[in-house]
Amino acid sequence: MDNLLPRIHGIEHRCRSLCALEGEQDVVSFLVGTQSMKPDNIVHLFELDEEFGELNDTCYHHDKGEVWHIASSPHSRDLISTCHSHVSNEINLVSGATVWKLSGTSEEPKLEELGDVSAHNSTVRVTEWGVEGCEGALCSLGDTSLVKWDVDSDVREHSYCELPKRSSPTSLRWNPHSSGNQVGIASDQHIRLHDLRTMKCTTVLDNAHSQTVRDLDFNPNRQYYMATCGDDCATRFWDTRNCSEPLLSFFNHSHWVWKVRYNLRDQLIMTGGSDSKVVLLNVASLASSDPVTEDEEEEEKDKENDQSKDEMREGVLEEYDKHEDSVYSVAWSTADPWLFASLSNDGRLVLNKVSKEIKFSIIL
Q1: What is the pLDDT of residues 43-92, one digit of tens each?
Q2: Please, what's the b/e burial string for 281-313 (b: 16 or more CB within 10 A of its CB; e: otherwise)?
Q3: Cα torsion 40, 168, 331, 322: sign
Q4: C-alpha distances in angstroms, 124 versus 36, 65, 169?
Q5: How do residues 329-339 score in pLDDT, each as one tens digit?
Q6: Consecutive H or E run containing 271
Q7: 3-class DSSP state of 143
Q8: One-character DSSP codes across 283-316
């Protein structure tokens, strides 16, 4: 498997939206949405065949136009959502967000539309599916409102709240430690935490970055810990109980940082930026105590005992330079926690893996 990576795949159109197919736990799978001004946009489902080393591509026609954001349900392999736009009558830009079901056959794949989730917003920028304990829920973040939806056989609005006027939301993430009751919103230079039971803002990180905050992510293992990134080239780590200053700050990009994502091994964080770089960070000082799984323990018994056990340095572990354009998105695989994908604006998808040296330093 390791000799198959990195794997580079060129997509015909420009792209900026990428996510793991989160409901798939056995096969390395990623979704990519294209951006073409012509009515031929595609949602690509890439699946890595580890036995034969092939990257299989299933193409779903996306008739709503350019895909600006894509998300998949962690509870159902077939449920996804997209934020999209297209030009109507050659002059009018029409934006929206839709919940889809991946259906059809392998020969004739089809996106089955389940419902529209663009109410209360002229433009929906992000959709996020509910975490464990909040199955069947979806949140949409637009230019004026945060809306929670119930998704089962159909799509129904659950509740909504208006956002501060003249704000410019950029990202939305569900907090995995709040029983599905809290989301984080990046807007301008600030972070706001909203309680979905009351649809009210409970915590504000004012001026989390000196310029626009592009993304945030919650630590999957430690409550209250969160990472952010932004146009000031910074990646920052926070304890939401005390937001006066970040716990750590890194400046490892020379341009805007578009995406930050925690690994399940929460000392590993991946970032992607407009400088064409993907960066792997180590923040062991803020990580949980994560025991080795049985499979990993068994794997180590077959390794030489002369592996270095020196503690890894905090900060940059690896920089990946397989892109030539802005990297808008990175995502960890849900089937293999050491494998990740990155996507740049020119349509280049790169699958890569954390090196054995780093992996063994963590799990030994």
Answers
A1: 999 999 988 889 999 999 999 999 999 999 999 999 999 999 998 877 78
A2: bbbeebbeeeeeeeebeeeeeeeeeeeeeeeee
A3: positive
A4: 19, 14, 10
A5: 999 999 999 99
A6: strand 268-273
A7: coil
A8: -GGG----PPPHHHHHHHHTS-TT---PPPPSEE
